[in-house]
Amino acid sequence: MGFNAVMVVFLSAIVGSSYSIIIHFRSKHVQWSEKTKNLQQQLFYTLVVQMIVPMVFVCVPCAGIINLPMLGFRLNV
């Protein structure tokens, strides 16, 4: 259960940070040129991809290997 708690804490931090970045992008108080805004959005999307790829290929399989036996599913790893 410790692994699940760590995953929940980190995923909530990631979602919260992403939400605040999106809110900042949509803010009317920030005066960016169109070129700078496009560059920042591209960098944000790159960061999202860099977060999702390891999550899908590393964390999700590890979570499955750890949690599925506790739920009654047998795994032959």
UniProtKB/TrEMBL annotation:
Protein name: G protein-coupled receptor
Listed InterPro entries: 7TM_GPCR_serpentine_rcpt_Str (IPR019428)
This protein's UniProt keywords: Membrane, Transmembrane, Transmembrane helix
Superkingdom per UniProt: Eukaryota
Pfam families reported in the protein's UniProt record: 7TM_GPCR_Str
Transmembrane segments: 6-23, 43-66
